[in-house]
Write a structure and sequence with these properties.
Number of helices of chain A: 17
CATH architecture of one domain in chain A: Alpha-Beta Horseshoe
Largest interface: A-B, 71 and 64 residues
Pathway (chain B): Protein modification; protein ubiquitination
Helix content of chain A: 25-40%
Oligomer: heterodimer
Keywords (chain B): Ubl conjugation pathway
CATH superfamily of chain B: Potassium Channel Kv1.1, Chain A
Helix content of chain B: 40-55%
Mean pLDDT of chain B: 86
Shape of chain B: elongated
InterPro entries (chain A): F-box-like_dom_sf (IPR036047), F-box_dom (IPR001810), LRR_dom_sf (IPR032675)
Protein name (chain A): F-box domain-containing protein
Pfam family, one (chain A): F-box-like
Low-confidence stretches of chain B: 1-5
CATH architecture of chain B: 2-Layer Sandwich
Largest sheet of chain A: 12 strands, parallel
Structural class of chain B: mainly alpha
Chain lengths: ~500, ~170
Amino acid sequence: MEVAQSHKAGWKINQDEEACYIEIDADDTEDEADESVIKSRWDSLPDLLLEQIFSYLTISERYYCSLVCSQWYRVFYLKNVWRNFSVVDDTLCRQKFNFYSGWQPVLDCLRAQTCLTRIGRYIKGISILPTYNFNNISQFMTLLTFNIQQSRRGSDPTYFEVGQRITNFKYLFPCNMASDQQDLKIYGTGGQLLKTLKALLFELKKLKSLKLIDLMLERYEAKHLLDEVLESCNMVLQHLVLINVTSTHCPIMHVGLFFNLKVLIISPQNLDDDCLQLLSSTSLQHLHIYQNSYSPSSPTACSVKAWKSFRQENPKAKVHLRIERLSLAAGTFDLTLQPFAPVYSVTFKSPKEQITAEKLITIVDMYKYTLSTFGHEMLPTFDSPKAFDERIDSLLILMARQCPNLTSLTIRESVSTSTLLLLAKTAINLNVLNVRKKCVIVKMDWPRNNDWSEEFFQWLQISSRSYESTEKEISQILCCRWTMLSDESFENLEINLPYFVL
Amino acid sequence: MDIDRPSDPQVSVVSSDGTMFHTTLKSILLSGTIKDMIEHIGEGGVENMGAIPLQNVDSKTLEIVIKWIEHHKDNIQPTSEEIKDKTADFIDPWDENFLEMDLDKLYNLITAANYLNIPQLLWLSTRKIAMLIKNRTPQEIRSLFNIEDDWTPQEIEAVQKENQWCEEK
């Protein structure tokens, strides 16, 4: 890109995030006046901010930035630039020609070693996110393990503090890698890769957060998955995510042995009464029980008895139930309800999940004293019924009435304006109410209730006559500006759950 | 924005060049810096509190910041710690549109968001800059931001050699 330095021109950003070079016309005198003053302030942006900007870039982009000027070069070596380090298939690779599959990325050990030597001591979080090339990932993990061992020995300055600051580790296994729409075949990790992973985990002594997602191990492997972590980090680990360690029922007892664990996100097939009993004597605050598309279709829940003693032993712990099923594939797949657990939230992320009377009444019945968040994310692929008797309006009001702690409700099916007004009035602690404008029916379709005063009935009738008046009244009740959501906003909506980050 | 509950009182702020702006308490509390100030005087004193002087923010920038905080006053704001480990990259279309501004304004916005301690706004604006840096050569980056090349040929060669491991091959 050729750039002429001229006072009569400048850079602007257009809609495609492209910077474009523009001539400044006479009518743009204001900008022109500013330019001489502002010229090249960017090289003196405070370190803290440049550090933040660099951290969003890839390794090679950071390299280009380091060549820009001496100040930016210095920023390249600031620790927060390298705070989070992601390893994907071709990270630190070179291309190698393979007779059968053409050019393939192969881990460049020299590059990887230089990388670890230079910046390995700054890394706090490692995310390993392969999509197909497990050999490179395995080699990288081996190299990192070796570096950490060397740095701990302390005799060679090359390995000074490499990996000593790692507190967060994430490993996401692409267990669907060979899937096609009709025949979803699920592969697991295991074997050599698992050995490498476990060796690395053993070297990480300061882990606060560990996320192992979709490993799909064999039972005999799963039972020993956390042996090393438990030995290294049983006092320091605070946040543990174990999703689909296996595809079949296989409780992981280790989860209950981390003394300072605060948050556990686990799939129901890896949890049982004995795990719960162990967990009840830890300082656990949030237990998310999470199912996704790869979880078994109907895992067994823990028993009423186990939940009862869990509540007694650890009354502060909150349970969250969530199911995420993004594919449209057919098949029965239900949220596993944990009977009489202290459930604070029930959330769904699936285009198909529809509220039914049976399900909702069970949820209300079991969790009415604790439930504070309920909702469905994503736009549905089904049409919700329009007639009052077939809609979910009365179920929602039932929930609002029965669950005094309800604070957040996300509705994607059709409801009427009068129902929304009633909901806002009935659920006294409600402060988040998400609805799709497209599915709100402007109508007063509730029969007169004997408990309502004449005044209330009138208010309901008048306020439910338009979107605007409904929004205005609900804003007043919720004490904040409240609007219904466009489908675009609703599609991107994420229900706020405590410490739920995968 | 016409519905302001009684418990969300008006607050005034004054920019470095002396322009006064009115906004609401709920909006201005998105700024960690101002939140700290207000906590010191106690919320009861907010009604009688005078305009808050902001020495480091000019009126043009303050106007932009206020537009943003008023739009986001009801949203849950992430803390600066949460932002550091943020992985999701979703940007609200409103914000995307909001960030369509020239580099000078963006520079002022970043420094203002930093001074006022508004983590989400700082994340958005710094991320915007990162997006502009992407896929550009060092020379293109220099030209874009009007940065002077202060390397000697020997120096640049040394840096290139040192950091070569970063380059994708």
